[in-house]
Automatic annotation (TrEMBL):
<dbReference type="GO" id="GO:0004519">
    <property type="term" value="F:endonuclease activity"/>
</dbReference>
<keyword id="KW-0472">Membrane</keyword>
<dbReference type="InterPro" id="IPR005135">
    <property type="entry name" value="Endo/exonuclease/phosphatase"/>
</dbReference>
<keyword id="KW-1133">Transmembrane helix</keyword>
<feature type="transmembrane region" description="Helical">
    <location>
        <begin position="32"/>
        <end position="55"/>
    </location>
</feature>
<feature type="transmembrane region" description="Helical">
    <location>
        <begin position="62"/>
        <end position="80"/>
    </location>
</feature>
<protein>
    <submittedName>
        <fullName>Endonuclease</fullName>
    </submittedName>
</protein>
<keyword id="KW-0540">Nuclease</keyword>
<feature type="domain" description="Endonuclease/exonuclease/phosphatase">
    <location>
        <begin position="103"/>
        <end position="305"/>
    </location>
</feature>
<dbReference type="Pfam" id="PF03372">
    <property type="entry name" value="Exo_endo_phos"/>
</dbReference>
<dbReference type="InterPro" id="IPR036691">
    <property type="entry name" value="Endo/exonu/phosph_ase_sf"/>
</dbReference>
<keyword id="KW-0812">Transmembrane</keyword>
<keyword id="KW-0255">Endonuclease</keyword>
<keyword id="KW-0378">Hydrolase</keyword>
Length: 319
C-alpha cells in the first residue's frame, strides 16, 4: 500500500509541471516575469508531455493518465498546426511582395552573405534590425542601395538600430522607439497601386525583469491589422505562444511561417551561438487579405538570428 502511494505521488509529481504549463499557456497568464522567456519553449514541452502520459499508463494510474492525455492533446492543438501547411484562401492576383528580414547582431552580420541573399531572393523590401551606422555603410558600399534605392535609415550604435530598404518608393512613417529600440516604419508605393505599410519589428528582449515593460509596450505599439495593408517583419523577440503576438494575429494578421508549415523552424539562435534550444522569434506577419505563397529560413554568418523570407500575394483591388 505504501509503495502504491509513493508510485502515485511520483506520477503526479512528474505530471504536475506539464499541467501547469498547459494552463498558463492556454490562459495567457504571466505568473512571474521569467515565464515570458520560458513560454517560448512550449513546442518542446508539448513533445515531452508524452512522458507523463506513458508513465501513468504504464503504471496503471488511470486518473493521472486521463489528466495527462488532456494535457498532451491541449498542447498538441496549440503547437502542431504550425507544422501543417494551410495557405488558406488566396485572395490575391498576380502581384507579389517579397519580404526579407534580418537581424545583424549589432551590425556583425556578414555583409557579403546579406548581399548574396538579396541577389538570390530578389526581395522588394528588406527589414533590418540591429543596424549600426558601420553596418549601414558596409551595406551601402556593397551595393545594397543600388539594388534597393528607397531607404528608411534609422541606424544606431548598439542593438537599437533599424532600417528598411525598398525596391519601390517608400514614405517614412513615425518611428516606434521604446527603451532605445527603434522600429522603422514606411509605406511602400507598390506598382500594383497598393500602399503597403512595412514595419521593421524589434522590441526589447525580455531577458530580465526591468526589460519586460519595454518588451510589452514595444509589441503593443505595433499597428494592428485593418484599413491599410500592413506587413510586420523582423525580430519580435516572441513566439506564437506569447500573448502580444497572438493579439496581433487576432487583429487580422497571419504568420507566414505558420501558414506554410514552417512555424516550428527555429530562427534563433543560429547553430554555434548558444546551447539554448532553438525557438521561432522572427516572423513575417501579413494582413489576412494577402496570400502567403512561400516562406523560408536562411543562414547568415556573424549573427545569432537566421534571416527569414516570405513571398506574399497582393489583393487584386488596391486599397
Amino acid at each position: 500500500m505504501i509503495k502504491s502511494r509513493w508510485t502515485s505521488a511520483l506520477v503526479w509529481l512528474v505530471l504536475s509541471p506539464f499541467v501547469a504549463w498547459a494552463v498558463l499557456r492556454l490562459g495567457g497568464w504571466t505568473p512571474v516575469w521569467q515565464w515570458i522567456a520560458l513560454v517560448a519553449f512550449t513546442p518542446y514541452v508539448a513533445a515531452a508531455s508524452a512522458v507523463p502520459l506513458l508513465l501513468s499508463l504504464g503504471l496503471r494510474r488511470w486518473a493521472a493518465a486521463a489528466v495527462a492525455l488532456v494535457t498532451s492533446v491541449a498542447l498538441a492543438l496549440v503547437v502542431l498546426p504550425r507544422h501543417i501547411t494551410d495557405h488558406g484562401p488566396l485572395p490575391s492576383g498576380d502581384q507579389r511582395l517579397r519580404v526579407l528580414a534580418t537581424n545583424l547582431a549589432v551590425g556583425a552580420g556578414d555583409t557579403a552573405s546579406v548581399m548574396r541573399l538579396v541577389r538570390d531572393l530578389k526581395p522588394d523590401v528588406v527589414t533590418v534590425q540591429e543596424l549600426t551606422p558601420e553596418a549601414r555603410d558596409r551595406l551601402d558600399d556593397a551595393g545594397l542601395r543600388a539594388l534597393l534605392p528607397h531607404v528608411v535609415d534609422r541606424a544606431k550604435s548598439g542593438v537599437g538600430g533599424s532600417g528598411l530598404y525598398s525596391r519601390h518608393p517608400v514614405s517614412e512613417r513615425p518611428l516606434i522607439e521604446l527603451g532605445a529600440f527603434r522600429q522603422a516604419r514606411g509605406v511602400i508605393s507598390h506598382p500594383s497601386g497598393h500602399e503597403i505599410e512595412i514595419v521593421s519589428v524589434h522590441p526589447c528582449a525580455p531577458s530580465y525583469d526591468s526589460r519586460i515593460p519595454c518588451w510589452d509596450t514595444g509589441l503593443e505599439a505595433l499597428p494592428e491589422a485593418g484599413g491599410q495593408l500592413r506587413v510586420l517583419a523582423g525580430d519580435f523577440n516572441a513566439t506564437l505562444d506569447h500573448r502580444p503576438v497572438r493579439d496581433l494575429l487576432d487583429s487580422g494578421y497571419r504568420d507566414a511561417a505558420d501558414l506554410t508549415g514552417h512555424g516550428l523552424t527555429p530562427t534563433w539562435p543560429q547553430q554555434g551561438w548558444s546551447r539554448v534550444p532553438g525557438v521561432t522569434i522572427d516572423h513575417v506577419l501579413a494582413d489576412r487579405r494577402m496570400a502567403v505563397h512561400a516562406f523560408s529560413v536562411h543562414a547568415l554568418p556573424g549573427t545569432d538570428h537566421r534571416p527569414i523570407f516570405a513571398e506574399l500575394g497582393l489583393p487584386t483591388t488596391a486599397s
